[in-house]
């Protein structure tokens, strides 16, 4: 019908996944709408919910789940927009949905979409017999009629809020958590367990979640944004354009998250695709926690967890920095511990180390083990500074950029131990020292000497210089 297209246009975002394939939206998407007056001033703000298509006769688990999610949104809403398709014309399904909407007794507006594709320029007259007091004919793709629709929504709202009346917060203060992994490892189940209510549709059918579902909530005075993502399958099995878009949004979610929960099926163990997804997270610079889900399905003795952790460390050796936790999203076992662990990992992801401490660390590391010669040239490491966070990124100035990767791994391991960098990737950049390059602290010292003549006697040669 174009519900997600209208949602994106009104919220001025690309939050909802849009595709020509029907049924793309399965979970509820929430967005903030800010209305402007003719002068461009913000005069009204309200929240909009995008839902999946209602199909009351569908008997499969996915269709029933989508309908259940949409009905939850109808219960929340103060105003309902029922959308129909002008190109397809009036259907018996439209009449059935209209009856259910009317029985709710809430303000409702009929939206006849796809004005641009109507023959004769007018919608089917049967739409006007559904009993709606207000009908708007629009084009969500081109924006025709949307401004008038928004004005009607404002008039139908039972109360009005100016943008400044809505409790806002600094988005930089929120802790963003993404739930990532293969299809059917329990991502949506974990999302629902963390939130304590059904936010994402859950079924045993792989690929149930298609869009990235954001939920903002507060726990222990910390604001979280939890992002449930679509399962990422092997490239060879990803053929539909809709699924490719879903996977793209999942990768984008890794990039905007502070911490990613990489779910692994405890019964199956680490697969090749788990390693591929872990690689995607590394490329995105995401901090990672390895969440071994379905732990309740595994037969255990006193050594089961230790043996499984050893296998995981061996199979995913390139993210040995990621902590491991064994949980069950079905029973809730250890799920609450994820919040404290995520907070600790997020701190490492945004940790900034003073330059003086880094150069002390570099001197001690070189003294403990100096780099080997490469192509007959012995590397000399002069100083080190941090240039970024999320992930922590460092520049090392040396007399050459040809330093063996094993030595950089040695520095990384020592850096993690020294400053407790857990769960986060670390970026190193080697740069050849140029004339005039000095650590920030040394430059400040030089400026002080030039300003006050510290350590120099007046009148000595070179003092002015």
Write up this protein.
It is a single chain. By secondary structure, the chain is an alpha/beta fold. The protein folds into three domains: 3-165, P-loop containing nucleotide triphosphate hydrolases (Rossmann fold, 3-Layer(aba) Sandwich), CATH 3.40.50; 171-349, 3-Layer(aba) Sandwich (Rossmann fold), CATH 3.40.50.300; 355-442, K homology (KH) domain (GMP Synthetase, Chain A, domain 3, 2-Layer Sandwich). The protein is 33% helix and 19% strand. It contains twelve helices and 14 strands. The strands form four sheets. A six-stranded mixed sheet has the order 7-8-6-9-10-11, sandwiched between helices. β7 (213-219) and β8 form a beta hairpin.
């Amino acid at each position: 019908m174009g519900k997600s297209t209208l949602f994106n246009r009104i919220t001025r975002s690309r939050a909802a996944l849009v595709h020509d394939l029907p049924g793309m939206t399965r979970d509820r998407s929430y967005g903030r709408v800010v209305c402007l007056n003719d002068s461009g001033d913000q005069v009204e703000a309200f929240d909009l919910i995008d839902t999946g298509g209602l199909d009351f006769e569908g008997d499969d688990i996915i269709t029933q789940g989508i309908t259940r999610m949409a009905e939850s949104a109808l219960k929340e809403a103060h105003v309902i927009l029922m959308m129909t398709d002008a190109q397809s014309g009036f259907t018996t399904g439209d009449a059935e949905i209209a009856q259910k909407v009317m029985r709710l007794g809430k303000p409702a507006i009929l939206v006849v979409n796809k004005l641009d594709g109507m023959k004769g320029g007018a919608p089917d007259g049967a739409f006007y017999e559904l009993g709606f007091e207000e009908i708007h004919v629009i084009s969500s793709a081109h924006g025709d009629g949307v401004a008038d629709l928004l004005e009607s929504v404002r008039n139908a709202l039972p109360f009005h809020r100016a943008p400044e009346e809505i409790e806002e917060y600094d988005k930089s203060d929120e802790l963003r958590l993404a739930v990532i992994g293969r299809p059917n490892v329990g991502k949506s189940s974990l999302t629902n367990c963390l939130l304590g209510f059904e936010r994402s549709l859950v079924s045993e059918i792989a690929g149930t979640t298609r869009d990235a579902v954001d939920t903002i909530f507060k726990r222990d005075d910390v604001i979280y944004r939890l992002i449930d993502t679509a399962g990422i399958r092997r490239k060879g099995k990803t053929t539909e354009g809709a699924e490719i878009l879903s996977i793209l949004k999942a990768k984008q979610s890794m990039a905007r998250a502070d911490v990613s929960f990489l779910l692994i099926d405890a019964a199956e163990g680490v697969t090749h695709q788990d390693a591929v997804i872990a690689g995607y997270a590394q490329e995105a610079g995401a901090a990672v926690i390895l969440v071994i889900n379905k732990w309740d399905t595994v037969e255990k003795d006193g050594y089961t967890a230790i043996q499984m952790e050893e296998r995981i460390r061996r199979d995913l050796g390139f993210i040995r920095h990621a902590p491991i936790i064994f949980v069950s999203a079905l029973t809730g076992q250890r799920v609450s511990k994820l919040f404290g662990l995520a907070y600790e990992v997020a701190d490492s992801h945004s940790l900034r180390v003073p330059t003086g401490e880094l150069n002390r660390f570099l001197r001690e590391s070189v003294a403990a083990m100096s780099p080997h010669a490469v192509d007959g040239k012995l590397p000399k490491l002069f100083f080190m500074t941090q240039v970024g966070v999320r992930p922590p990124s460092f520049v090392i100035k040396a007399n050459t950029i040809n330093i063996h990767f094993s030595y950089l791994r040695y520095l990384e391991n020592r850096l993690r131990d020294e400053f407790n960098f857990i769960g986060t990737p670390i970026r190193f950049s080697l740069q050849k020292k140029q004339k005039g390059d000095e650590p920030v602290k040394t430059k400040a010292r030089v400026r002080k000497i030039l300003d006050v003549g510290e350590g120099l006697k007046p009148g000595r040669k070179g003092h002015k210089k």
